[in-house]
Amino acid sequence: MLLEFSVSNFRSIKDMQTLSFLATTMNEHEKTNTIQVTDKVRLLKSTAIYGANGSGKSNLVKAMWAMMNFIKVPFEDRKKIEEHIQPFKLNTSTRNEGSFFQIMFILEGKTYRYGFVYLKGKITSEWLFGTANKNEVEFFTRDKQKIYINKERFKEGIGLETKTREDTLFLNVVFDFNGKIACVIKDYLGEIFILQGLDEEILQSFSYNLIQNKANKHRLLEILKLADLDIYDIGMDEDYDQKTRKIISQRKIFDENGQEVGLETLDFDKDASAGTKKMFIYAGVFVHLLKSGGTIIIDEFDTKFHTSLTKAIVKLFNSEKNKTAQLCFVTHNTNLLDNDLLRRDQIYFAEKNQRGETSIYSLNEIKGVRNDSSLEKDYIKGKYGAIPFIRNLNTIFE
User: Fold this and answer.
1) CA-closest candidate to residue 248, choices 223, 267, 221
2) Is 394 helix (H, G, I), strand (E, B) or coil?
3) 304's torsion region: left (phi>0), alpha (psi -120 to 50) or beta?
4) CATH assignment of 2-191+293-381?
């Protein structure tokens, strides 16, 4: 499970910023909103990120997207990812420095810390640490092309140093040679899904698979009905070209007396609302994560969703039935700032200062916030920062 993600010198993020899923000692919603993963570590099931437009919320998601895809995609497809990795340009000291990425996670009871620094097509630094006898130990570290391997902890990397180019991650090289630890880590990272813009459509395959899975199709329908109660059933048009995967939905037909008389089959793409289509994209991934575990990070989570629908999804992750799934979402929906829904350590804010630098901080870090505080009202009043400064627009007529 995800412990934390850190990034620096990436777009509007100049100094090190960290998003943490580590639960604090507060006892609010402990049974529903947190997971006890080890004797000493309790993690959050969800985190929300608020902030004004242009504050850098999306840049934090882009940083996670860039790191995950830099690791996961084939080398020949990496160019579009590298285009996203830009240093902080509003300071002369950072323009020619590398972008720092690091992720910490718990896997099979062990904590791993992996990261790298990227600069103009090259990996200038890379590292992997893990727990051994409850203490963190070095697995390997890299300074440009000099790679040091802990022969006791990372034997699988021995001899592969010379096979690692300056533009390639050492972790990926070890993975290509079936290194056990590298494979475990890469498999875990494959269960981190990051949705931003058009990338959402890539994950529709999970929903397509559920449509054809009789044992789990009902789970997909239940989530879809959160967005559209009128859907009775959903399926694939068997007479249609399977490559385009035409989806059909069935809805009940009623007579003039309100009595059910049959079912009508409709083209899902043409008939369904924008919110229902978006829920179809998400539903399959939600079912997969809630059954098998993993993490999903969603930018502009509440776009096309009613307030009640976004709250229902957050409650789905913040429930006792969820054992290993995590949700992180960027939102402007202040109705979710509710003590009955989220703990203070689950709420993050993004704010940009006058120098154009983004900072990320938790509501739990702000002193004087009581358990019974009206979070939504206080946020709108500006007590927590991270809100836009709106000038008087009447001046545009003067």
Assistant:
1) 267
2) helix
3) left
4) 3.40.50
